[in-house]
Amino acid sequence: MENDSEFEQQFTKLLKDAAKGLEDLQSQFEDMDRNLQTVHSLGKQVYESSHLWHEFNKAIDNNRMFVSDNEVHREQ
Length: 76
Fold this sequence. Notes:
This protein has one helix at 2-75. It is mainly alpha-helical. It comes from Rhizopus delemar.
């Protein structure tokens, strides 16, 4: 009987250790999820800014081409 009691004590301790490990793992996954959400949010902000600058650059380039075309036509 004493061996069963020792076995049960060790088994209970192992179960508690496993439960603690799973709780820690869940907490780490939650932290990682929050970090990934933050990275995703920052990425969206960078994309929006990048898209805005890209459109601005296209508008400037189009304006340059329009101005240079008009200068060519005036010279002729």
